[in-house]
């Protein structure tokens, strides 16, 4: 009889336990649950927006910017997973569950210049306002681990904003493929490297267009 009732007992036990190691783990009915869901939705949407922006950049001849949009999209997927896992762990015994949130999300898709501006603005809001606020709320409600996730991911978003702003500056000042001094340019398709003030119209080795060239920097 004890064995037969084991699953029922376990579920009841998990529902009633509210603290483990001094930290609250049950998210039900908390503001932090709502904030985690907002963050999960926001990161998920950012991932898709950046994927769309990558396609636009590629069409406009900015292969490196396209690749960086895709890389950032992958980062946002990982952020979304962190927040989603917190929800799953905090709602053990309650699943499946519907989480209602009242939030606004950006809708924008234009040229690469405008897309970089929009992306930078979104990252800025996350690291300067949203995630610090969410972290403070989580801390007050007893979710120290969740608070730490918000704070650490905010650091990544700050770096994302910095990169987007630098790429935007290069686009606006027409420095994506041209510099005042000679620099090393690398073909992203075949790896060909040459020294010049400006990337060539066509790669001498693989014949791919200028779009595939980027500054060559050894960072290892």
TrEMBL record:
Single GO term (MF): iron ion binding
Organism: Mesotoga prima
InterPro entries named among the record's database cross-references: Ferritin-like, Ferritin-like_diiron, Ferritin-like_SF, Rr_diiron-bd_dom, Rubredoxin-like_dom, Rubrerythrin, RUBY_RBDX
Descriptive protein name: Rubrerythrin
Superkingdom of origin: Bacteria
Cofactor: Fe(3+)
Domain Rubredoxin-like: 182-216
Presence of the UniProt keyword Metal-binding in the record: yes
């Amino acid at each position: 009889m004890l064995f037969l009732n084991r699953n029922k007992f376990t579920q009841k036990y998990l529902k009633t336990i509210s603290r483990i190691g001094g930290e609250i783990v049950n998210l039900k009915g908390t503001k932090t649950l709502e904030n985690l869901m907002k963050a999960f939705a926001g990161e998920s949407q950012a991932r898709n927006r950046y994927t769309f922006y990558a396609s636009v950049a590629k069409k406009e001849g900015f292969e490196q910017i396209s690749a960086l949009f895709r890389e950032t999209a992958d980062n946002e997927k990982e952020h979304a997973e962190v927040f989603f896992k917190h929800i799953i762990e905090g709602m053990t015994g309650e699943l499946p569950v519907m989480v209602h949130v009242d939030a606004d999300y950006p809708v924008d898709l234009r040229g690469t210049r405008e897309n970089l501006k929009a992306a930078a603005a979104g990252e800025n809001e996350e690291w300067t306002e949203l995630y610090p606020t969410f972290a403070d709320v989580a801390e007050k409600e007893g979710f120290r681990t969740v608070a730490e996730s918000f704070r650490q991911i905010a650091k990544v978003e700050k770096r994302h904003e910095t990169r987007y702003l630098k790429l935007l500056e290069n686009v606006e000042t027409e420095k994506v493929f041209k510099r005042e001094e000679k620099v090393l340019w690398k073909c992203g398709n075949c790896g060909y490297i040459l020294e010049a003030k400006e990337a060539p119209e066509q790669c001498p080795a693989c014949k791919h267009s200028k779009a595939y060239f980027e500054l060559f920097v050894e960072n290892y």
